[in-house]
Amino acid sequence: MLIFERGQAGRRAVAQAPSTTDDLHDIPAALQRKQKPLLPEVGEMQVVRHYTNLSRKNFSIDTHFYPLGSCTMKYNPRGAHRAAMQAGFLGRHPLAHESISQGFLACLYELQEVLKGVTGMKGVSLTPMAGAQGEFAGVAMIRAYHEARKDHERKEILIPSAAHGTNPATAVMCGYKVREIPVNDEGDVDVDALRDAVGPQTAGLMMTNPSTCGVFERSVREIAEIVHAAGGLLYYDGANLNAILGKVRPGDMGFDVMHMNLHKTFATPHGGGGPGAGPVGVGERLLPYLPIPMVGKDEIEGKPRYRWLTEADIPQTIGRLSTFMGNAGVLLRAHYYASVLGREGLLRVGEFSTLNANYLMKKVQDAGFQLAYPKRRATHEFIITLNKQAKELHVSAMDFAKRILDYGYHAPTTYFPLLIPECWLIEPTETESRDELDGFVKAMVQIQAEAENNPELVRGAPYSQPVRRLDDVRAARELDLVWRPTAEQ
Amino acid sequence: MPYVPHTDEDVRIMLDTIGVASIDALFDEIPAEIRAKPLLEIPSGRTEMDVTRLVGERAAADGNVINFLGAGAYEHHIPAAVWDIISRGEFMTAYTPYQAEASQGTLQVIYEFQSLMAHLTAMDVSNASLYDGGSALAEAALMAVRANRKSQSGRVLVLENVNPFYCDAARNIVGNQHIEIVKVPFDATTGNVDQAALDAYAGQDFAALVVAMPSFFGTLEDVHALTDWAHANRMLMVAVVNPTALAVLTPPGEWGQKGADIVVGEGQPLGVPLSSGGPYVGFICCRNEIVRQLPGRIIGRTVDLEGKRGFTLTLQAREQHIRRSKATSNICTNQGLAMAAATIYLSLLGAEGLARVAQACHANTRKLIASLSEIPGVSVAHQSAFFHEAVLRLPKNAAEVVAALAEQRIAGGLALGEFFPDHENALLVCATEMRNDADIARYQAALRQILA
Description:
- The complex is a heterodimer.
- Chain A is α/β, with parallel strands linked by helices.
- Helices cover 37% and strands 12% of the residues of chain A.
- Chain A folds into three domains: 3-55, no CATH class; 79-341, Type I PLP-dependent aspartate aminotransferase-like (Major domain) (Aspartate Aminotransferase, domain 2, 3-Layer(aba) Sandwich); 347-473, Aspartate Aminotransferase, domain 1.
- In chain A, the strands form three sheets. In chain A, strands 1-7-6-5-4-2-3 form a seven-stranded mixed sheet, with helices on both faces. In chain A, strands 10-11-13-12 form a four-stranded antiparallel sheet, covered by helices on one side. A two-stranded antiparallel sheet of chain A has the order 8-9.
- Chain B is α/β, with parallel strands linked by helices.
- At the A-B interface, helix 1, helix 2, helix 3, helix 4 and helix 5 of A face helix 1, helix 2, helix 3, helix 4 and helix 5 of B.
């Protein structure tokens, strides 16, 4: 039932709105609303019950193992939520004077420093509001760099074929053409193809490492040299930073610019699809172009004094990308997380996410499933292909994914990367225990048996969820995006 | 170690299963010469208790400020139920609803949000939200250029009294696609558009006209005439609106003869705290005819294989994970949590409650500017109808006044000198329903003293 359908004309939550009404005599009648908007007419308890019950129709990290590859669904510490939800931070206006904002600015400054440390970058701006906006900021900086050098012929961004869809979409938003570079059958970029592709038209290369194939790009130094020698810059997509935290830094691999997904690596809640935060880090060459605002620190009479850095400080900045300063609440949660973990804890993120993935990969392989890259180490994630099941049993990767919901596990990422047929990308994260991983393998084995003995059962899944499989074709063909009373049966 | 549950025994069993001697051996594909050294520049970890105390002190240091500052972010009462529900792990720690059957909660909330926003703006459809108001304006400009097939110029006209932060963000986001934002000046006496300056663009090729209601100065334009002007000149009408105001002001779908084509704005006033600037929630609505140009995530209602009603991601062929370089935008999330807060807020308030909030804001702002105008040398800058903000002219540099007010823990407004020439003494103020007579009296006393 929709919240609209729970209403009765004239019912309302009285205590939540001002008790007085006021005429609007000084606003011209032509600008006043004639007909009230069609909002629900419900009481407070109805609202609480409605949304509490809706929440129970979700899988979440707090309720289920959620091994969604490339999304890093690790535990989101409650302490971080509480820290960010304090009255002093929540009530602070984004344009409040610096003299009454020192607490907030101190947290942001410290976060900038931690992110520089773990990435090996020289400067960090926290302002991008999501990974995709971080990508945008990064590629816009690459463009600003070439333009400042009057190097106007560089019109192309190189992207490995397995990349996230945001990479090519971002390059186009920044005014570039995209050229794809193939990936070889061990998951590495085809270095010879890259060598053939670079030239005076190359603005840069966007790369994820560990790659979207779930393996570490072993030729990364060589790739960096080839792109740099051609005059291009290297962009690091931080989607998989969790795997290498404390083990190897993008700055040391040769990257010039990167974004981090704090909602992945720094454990801030995914919120059902946002808000995230996608800070950008840069090496020496791109420092003048970082997006604003950033936070600077001065010493006044031996005491730190934090302030916003704006165009006046960074005249060549690519500018502001949000109304104010970005997703502050997400940044505060990441600051808390980094403070609790410290350098030892951050190192263990990389270690234990990699341990869990390699353990799970071995167990899955021992159970008879086909790995996409059996000769490689897993990073924090790995890929299996259910191509054989699809061909021989006519049970697809999507069928397996729907069925595992019935076993109480969120499905891994399906059909990504696109170059592996019928694939699952599995990322357990460091916060899961060995027993949880063992339980997941057990469920996979059982589904395999079902696929062999009773494939219809798997093809019809799920059975345990609020709805059965949904008709996506009808959703797109008979668009119903807004509830209207006339549309009701 | 924090948030990692492994015992030594677990680690031993796991390494044995994999067949390696140490965790470090799992990183043997990383070339040795680039392996990281210990991260000595990062401090050691601390306990929950220690970090909570540290950030608690910092939050307290920034707290207890009384707000007369708006300029795109507004302090409203947020019913307790809103964030109690949002903070449930099932909403907080879920992700993008790719597995629709296991995400019906999030999906239905988005469908309800889309419905609420469409009704509030009187438009046909809404998406699942964008990052914030500024980036929503950028997406609206891009969308208008795609959707207006009569226009080839890639230029968009924007009234200069649209929030300058929005304009900045939009220009920085769309600029690399050769889309130009051209500003139309305002009339200094009204704060509204300089009609003669606008008329100079009549007949020229622009994809859209962008008009805000209320304007950045709080004033109310003749949106009906502007909408008809845009359409007469083959431009799409893009409305930038405050959602609270829409409870009492004409919704963009009813502007002029044909209504606005695209509507964007900042949803923060709907149950999202000021929270230092984010996460907020941008919204974008449009007419049915151009829904396929709408960026970002969209949820549709459908049925399952037993005919039962359900919700799913739809029109995904516009999106980056399918279309890659041909996508309408690179966006791949919405602002899920803040969007859910807005949904619950609007459900609790209803049309009557939201109208009362809007009326109280308007009444308080009227009181505020009347009270402050009693101070010698202080006057109201614009002779126009306003919603819940207004510009005051001070006898002194406004930035200095704001700094002095901050010492008394009053956020007194936004000094406009930084944004507009000849506005060094102009101060943009706001009073929402949260301000009472005592707050206004305190502000008046403080300002009187500073200006004395």
